[in-house]
Design a protein that fits this description.
single chain, 29 helices
């Protein structure tokens, strides 16, 4: 057992509510239990809807729920199948339909888009906001639909349609010169990549640093505007100038390119999106840390270039590679796990190349959170999980309590410990009558 008093802290979360949320994510919780939690209030409903693989009867109940907030949660759920979210496209609430059209905001895992027929329905919605959101998020809208929306009575919808049509209708880029600041985010890609009129350039130079930073990447800028942006008062704008594609280490203007190891930067557009292997190599081999971090986001990196970046002495670059690339090597994933902030570690373990068999070696780690990760080692023995359930750190005991390899005797011993019980409540071996007892204690009938 590890005695680490620094982690022997008081439990500040309401254990009753925590137990209900844990049951909501318990893979063995039957539909009748999930339906009771769904109707128990906002936090219970959120816990149910955020769970993947809900029974159809629970989706049916959420879609027909009297509470608009519950339906809105489902409309914007990352875990709900697109076909279930699509059923809310006819919801009487404009807010719900707007969330359907806007879709979830995924973290790292792409979200399945709605069916084309659902976007086609939303694009004719009576609400201008819904039409605009559907136009913005439809992955591949028909040209005829975009052309029709270019004449929509709503300005925002027309703007979205124009921002999605400028490649085939370049004259639409002139609209940037008259676009209000709130609409300019729709034009972020052409601001950074397209040839712009003099009027548009003049307008963009007068906007805030976010717009000027985008403009600083534009490969079609005349020399005088590049010089002006290179002298910009904002360091992010100057940094963007230093990452322009035509510059090499010997031709970059005299700019402050120093980036600290902990500094967050906005990645440059061209290294992230280029399909040219020579340009990727240029960014990978650059001495400019900003370019190396930017190209780390490029999903087309070859394994050779990925390996070059993986060897870099920059934790942020290495983390980006792990979060972005399906071919991130096992050694890199393991090393980044040990050096990354706690909040990112479980996502690293979910990577298909992660060497989960190494997790058991963390048993003697001084870090309780690291020891709690051992449960993700699918080959760890039941005896090891049992040992973890006696760890001095409640985080470790809680993780072990939720593991199906834990003995039933030990599981029942942990149920009444308020610092551990939510781990036990998530255990797939927990009998349904015990789940119902937890709900009764929370006043859920």
């Amino acid at each position: 057992m590890h005695a680490n008093k620094a982690h022997d802290v008081k439990w500040h979360v309401d254990p009753v509510k925590a137990n209900v949320k844990a049951i909501a994510r318990n893979p063995s919780a039957p539909a009748k239990v999930l339906l009771r939690i769904l109707d128990s209030g906002w936090s219970g409903a959120a816990a149910v809807i955020s769970r993947p693989h809900l029974p159809d009867t629970v989706y049916d109940a959420a879609i027909a729920h009297r509470d608009q907030d519950v339906r809105t949660m489902l409309a914007s759920s990352e875990t709900a199948p697109a076909a279930q979210r699509a059923r809310l496209a006819a919801d009487p609430s404009t807010a719900v339909r707007l969330h359907v059209a806007a879709g979830p905001i995924p973290d790292h895992t792409p979200v399945e888009p709605l069916p084309d027929k659902t976007y086609a329905r939303l694009i004719t919605d009576r609400s201008p906001a819904v039409r605009a959101a559907a136009c913005l998020n439809w992955p591949d809208p028909p040209v005829a639909t975009l052309d029709r929306l270019l004449n929509d009575p709503d300005l925002e919808t027309r703007t979205v349609a124009a921002a999605r049509s400028w490649r085939r209708l370049p004259h639409l880029l002139s609209l940037i010169a008259t676009a209000g600041h709130a609409a300019l985010h729709l034009w972020s890609e052409p601001i950074a990549t397209a040839p712009l009129t003099t009027d548009a350039l003049t307008t963009l130079l007068s906007h805030d640093e976010w717009i000027r930073r985008l403009l600083a990447e534009n490969p079609y800028l005349p020399a005088d505007i590049i010089a002006r942006l290179a002298a910009d008062q904002n360091p992010d704008v100057r940094l963007a100038v230093s990452m322009r594609r035509e510059f090499s280490e010997n031709t970059t203007p005299e700019l402050d390119m120093l980036i600290g190891r902990g500094d967050e930067i906005t990645p440059a557009f061209w290294p992230r999106t280029t399909t040219d292997p020579a340009l990727m190599r240029h960014a990978v081999e650059s001495t400019h840390l900003g370019l190396r971090r930017s190209v780390a986001y490029n999903p087309r990196l070859s394994r050779t270039l990925l390996a070059q970046l993986a060897a870099a002495d920059d934790p942020e670059t290495r983390l980006i590679l792990c979060e972005t690339h399906p071919h991130a090597p096992a050694d890199l994933l393991w090393d980044v796990l040990r050096e990354s902030p706690t909040s990112t570690r479980r996502e690293l373990i979910a990577h298909p190349n992660f060497p989960t068999h190494r997790l058991r070696t963390l048993f003697h780690s001084a870090d309780g959170f690291e020891r709690s990760l051992i449960v993700y080692d699918t080959a760890a023995s039941a005896e090891l999980i049992e040992q973890l359930s006696y760890d001095a750190d409640p985080r470790v005991r809680r993780a072990a309590a939720g593991d199906p390899r834990l003995s039933m005797l030990r599981l029942f011993e942990l149920i009444d410990d308020p610092s551990i019980s939510n781990g036990a409540a998530a255990n797939p071996n927990l009998p349904v009558p015990i789940m119902e007892l937890f709900l009764a204690r929370a006043g859920i009938r």
